[in-house]
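Anyone else keep sequences and structure tokens together like this?

Example one:
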Amino acid sequence: MDKKSMVADLAALVTAESPSSDLGAVDACADVVADIGERHLGSAPERIHIDGRQHLRWSFGAEPKVMLLGHFDTVWPLGTLAELPWSVTDNIATGPGVFDMKAGIVQLFHALASLPSLDGVVVLLNSDEEIGSPTSRALIEEQARQVDAVLVLEAAADGAVKTARKGMSLYCVDIEGRAAHAGLEPERGVNAVVELAHQIQAVVELADPAAGTSVVPSVISGGTTTNTVAAQAQLWCDVRMWSAKEQERIDRSIRALTPALAESRISVSGGPNRGPLESVSSEKLYFLAHQVSSESGLGMLRDCAVGGASDGNFTAAVGTPTLDGLGAVGGGAHAATEHVEIDQMIPRATLLAGLVTRILEGGL
């Protein structure tokens, strides 16, 4: 593997801005990803179009065994390069999406290019992970069911791979009251904003900090004018948890919410978005990766559990062993401080190559 070549590929990807919401930019970046992948893997990807959005897949051999999973969309709006330009200084690379997760894609291609055979390998790179993978989720889950293991090239956490991720659910609580003049006859109204206050407290009380379950009211709205009893209100909640059991408990509880005010009405929409990536899903792969790291002279491989979700949550939820955080070493995801440690790219690609080899050999 060659660091100069890696940096050149990374520069090409980072300067191809790809905000999830801009389909033209995402498609242009897909072309760059496809070209780099074809150069290293020896074949062009299958371009999968779903609802006007494209995802890229490379498949090798008749019997898939391991899927390498990642995304090439970013959270950064078009034009961010003018404020956060691509640069490399003292082995630190910066630029929008460099850490999350374009360096991981580069490491993936270089790792696979070093292997004598790719039979049994599937690479799936999607373009909508940063907005919840609405068009690629079914594709990811279907592919995950066909392989023995999934390796996710999301960025590492201070160098540690991610052996557990919280699941997440998202709910919208709509509240209907009754409008009335706030000065002339407020008693004729049913105040949806007051009901909203009751429901905020009710959902907050569902959290269980000891179990690591958070229920966060995130966006609220309600009312129309200052002199009108509010007839409508709305509450959005972000829920995170470590276990499927907790996800089910919260789901039952939120759907069972009842009005505190007579004559107000509540409806709940939304639900689980990603199931938890529990440590039982990753333990065998982490053990194997730890062995590869030690035997390759890369040192002790650390692991961690994180609150954020990824597409690895989907693959773990369908029952496929999944190890996440095998991508770049650096920091500042989604922030102006986003960066990658260039000197760690070859070691991480070496680890990935060794892990893929062990899985293909039946080591799982």
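And example two:
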Amino acid sequence: MNSPRILALLPFLVKGALSIAIFRALRARGVEITVAYCGDASAAYEPDALEDFASTGHLLDLSDMSAVTRFDLVQEQLVDRKIDLVLQVGATQLYHLLPYWKERLPELRIADILYNEIGHTLNHFLYEGCFDAVIVESDFMGGFIRRSSLRPDPPVVVVRSGVDLDEFSPAAAHSGTGLKVGYVGRMSDEKNPVGFVELARRLASLNPGLEFEMFGTGPDAAMVKERVAASGITDRLRYHGFMEHARDALHQLDVLILPSKFDGRPVLVMEANACGIPVIAAPVGGIPELVADGVNGFLMHPTETERIHGLLSRLQEQPQTLQALKTAARTHALEHFSRDKMIEAYAAAFAKVALV
């Protein structure tokens, strides 16, 4: 099967973004991919300059342009590069242009990639008639699209994500005597870092042997720092800010807590398990598809203080139980979270959509 020529539409370029990792992997396999982006989010996220794409003329900067200029420039790329498939990956400023490209280039195929049910999902339904496929990561999102769509049979394709199981692997035991419990990720409301701070404060009052670490940055970073400073447990709750690699943060933990309010199929669960770290995660979005309760983690809301305290205390008192859980988490990742399988699945999905 021939690989389609692809144009991916991104809102901005973020280092470590799953979509960029997928595009790089496919490009390494010989797939022709051009990336277009609409703005700069470096004030909130660590940017990825995509020099590898730019060096071959496959990076298109659409920021600070009018809608008309963007439309003309992208259409020129669609024609000159003989693009088969456009991937809309959250570029909200470009949704309203899709019908016009579709009208002028009727053979063009367009797919929307949706990771969760918030954010640009509204735009998807406003322009869903333009899409030849909707690519999602989880059965949860597939069901959400089918329930919410005005189309009788929306063209949903589920592609489950994975991680590099060599890059994310267990490390030697960290230093220190306390059980280290952590939050790793974006400091934004849907991820609920404030909920982690509040949970840490409650758990600290119940168990003097617990230590808490927070890693990450984002739009709510300043507020999270203030909450940590006001927590009264700054000797046991530490905010480290941005980490170059999530693996380095995960290697400092015994247990990861994911207190999300909303989520899709968070890559962090897979990265943690690949590092041999069990996860206590809120049962929202596609998370229950990732966490087998009692195998590679546990499904608990961050407000369930007593349940979480009981679990952490048991792991603290029974090191052999903790080690068995860590081993099971790594085994689960090896069986279910392969990055190579994910890349193959995305390549197959893009080729299939392009031939619709």
